[in-house]
What does this fold into?
Amino acid sequence: MKKLYVLFVVISICFTGFSQCDNPPSPPVIACYDRNPFESTFKLSIENEVSTKLEVQILNSTGLLISTRYVPIDDLGETQFGEDLTPGVYFVLVKQGNNRQTLRMIKY
It folds into this structure.
């Protein structure tokens, strides 16, 4: 009975530690793509008010980092991704400040 009680206390302390936040949350990244699955390239668009640049990482289905690009928000609509990828499943990790979003993309 004592072991169970100690485990509960440890778990409670760990979870309550994560709930405290020193900085107010910033708006989440809401990345949208123009087509999925895609044949040659795809474009991203962002639907939020934050104007900081984006970090876009492309990972293959096993989690291996394929490429990283830093894109200013103003250039995002003209930037194409995926031209150098072979057909397969990819994860696109979009980071903006402390926020991140993962998209699953398929190239055929």
In short: The longest strand covers residues 88-96. Residues 26-107 form a domain with the Immunoglobulin-like fold (CATH 2.60.40.10).
